[in-house]
Give the backbone structure.
Amino acid sequence: MPRLSQRSDNPAGLRFIRPERPAMTTSSFVPELPSGKNPALRVVPMPADANVHGDVFGGWIMSQVDMAGSIPAVERAQGRVATVAVNSFLFKNPVFVGDLVSFYADIVKTGRTSITVSVEVYAQRMRHANEIVKVTEATLTYVATDESRQPRVLPAA
Ligand SMILES: CC(C)(COP(=O)(O)OP(=O)(O)OC[C@H]1O[C@@H](n2cnc3c(N)ncnc32)[C@H](O)[C@@H]1OP(=O)(O)O)[C@@H](O)C(=O)NCCC(=O)NCCS
């Protein structure tokens, strides 16, 4: 759709085209956010978080996912943790500037010193009030660490 037609302030007659938004996949459409759960984190990406195409950087999402996942890990470890592994990461749908992005983080496994957390991410398209899309799924492992940054045995649950 042309956004700027040939005008006196556009002597070259340039036509600016609004990028098409990718179609939402039906498998990832959910009518509402997960019920009975509180997000670990909710945040709205800003224009500085976008790439040249106007979509939010994957790296920004990864950073937020790491932060969200660390919250239940720190609680379970009752102290500091370090991210030892990103086991899986799936970007199912894009995130746009201005979306309200919610990160749900749940511990799925604990070991002697490690805590594995599943993080699910949903974007609420603020320009389309009822549209909520699952955008990312990830699994990360954190290790409880001591003051010397060495692995620490988890306290009793
Ligand atoms: C995290 C860290 C302290 C772990 O030390 P380590 O000597 O490698 O630890 P270990 O080999 O004893 O493993 C510790 C736990 O992590 C788990 N682990 C190690 N590598 C793993 C991997 N690739 N995937 C999943 N779990 C892993 C181990 O199974 C173990 O779990 P358990 O005790 O519950 O059985 C160390 O690797 C480190 O400092 N890494 C850098 C952390 C960091 O800076 N993260 C920020 C990103 S840059």
